[in-house]
UniProtKB/TrEMBL annotation:
Taxonomy of the source species: Bacteria, Bacillati, Bacillota, Clostridia, Lachnospirales
Pfam families associated with the record: DUF1653 (PF07866)
InterPro entries membership: DUF1653-like_dom (IPR023387), DUF1653-like_dom_sf (IPR037135)
Domain DUF1653 stretches: 13-76
Source species: Lachnotalea glycerini
Stated name of the protein: DUF1653 domain-containing protein
Length: 194
C-alpha cells in the first residue's frame, strides 16, 4: 500500500511511532498554498492540538534515522477499544468518532477487554493496568484509552485509587471529573519535576 492510498478521516485515532496516541480533529486546507493538512489532538498530557501536512502524516517512518522502530508508518491507525494498531493492509475499519472537541465522551459499559461482566470479587484487567502506571501522565494516557470501556464500578475504583471524590451521578460526568483531576495532577507533577 503506498502513501497515496492511505486515507485519514476526522475522528479516527492514530498512534505515532514514538508511542503516543492522537485523534484526528479535521482535515484542513492551507489558505495560501492549498496544501492538505491534518489537524490532530494529543490524547495525553495537556491534550495539545497539532497541524501537519497530510503527506507527512501518512508517510513511512525514516528507518535509516530510526532503525529500532518497528512501525511502518509515522502514524498508524489505532483501536482505542483494544489498545492496538489496526493493520491497514488487511482491513478498512473506521473508528466511531469520539467528540473530544466538545468533551462529550461516549462511554459503554463493558468492564473488561472481552466485554464479559465481572463476577463478584473479580478485578478488571484494565483497572489493573491503570493501577500499574507509575506517573500521573501514564495514568492519564491509560485513562483516555478506557473512555469507551469504563463502567460505573471501574470509574469508582479509579477515583478511589486517586484518593478523589467524584460527585457526579452520570457515567459521562464521572469520567470527565476524573480526567480533569488527572490533568491537574499531571500539571503539578510536571512542575514539581522541573
Amino acid at each position: 500500500m503506498n502513501n497515496f492510498e492511505r486515507e485519514v478521516k476526522q475522528g479516527e485515532f492514530y498512534k505515532h511511532f514514538k508511542n503516543k496516541v492522537y485523534q484526528i480533529i479535521a482535515i484542513a486546507t492551507h489558505s495560501e498554498t492549498r496544501e492538505k493538512m491534518v489537524v490532530y489532538q494529543a490524547l495525553y498530557g495537556d491534550f495539545q492540538f497539532y497541524v501537519r501536512p497530510y503527506h507527512m502524516f501518512i508517510s513511512e517512518v525514516d528507518h535509516a534515522k530510526y532503525p529500532e522502530v518497528k512501525q511502518k508508518y509515522r502514524f498508524e491507525k489505532y483501536d482505542v477499544n483494544v489498545g492496538s494498531i489496526i493493520k491497514e493492509e488487511n482491513t478498512r475499519v473506521f473508528m466511531q468518532s469520539t467528540d473530544y472537541v466538545s468533551e462529550k465522551p461516549i462511554l459503554v459499559q463493558s468492564p473488561n477487554e472481552n466485554n464479559d461482566v465481572l463476577k463478584e470479587g473479580e478485578v478488571s484487567p484494565l483497572l489493573l493496568e491503570f493501577l500499574d502506571c507509575k506517573t500521573y501522565e501514564e495514568k492519564l494516557d491509560k485513562f483516555v484509552t478506557l473512555k469507551n470501556k469504563a463502567d460505573d464500578r471501574m470509574l469508582s475504583d479509579i477515583a478511589m485509587s486517586l484518593d478523589i471524590t467524584v460527585e457526579s451521578e452520570k457515567l459521562q460526568d464521572k469520567y470527565e471529573e476524573i480526567k480533569t483531576c488527572l490533568l491537574t495532577f499531571v500539571h503539578f507533577e510536571d512542575n514539581r519535576m522541573r
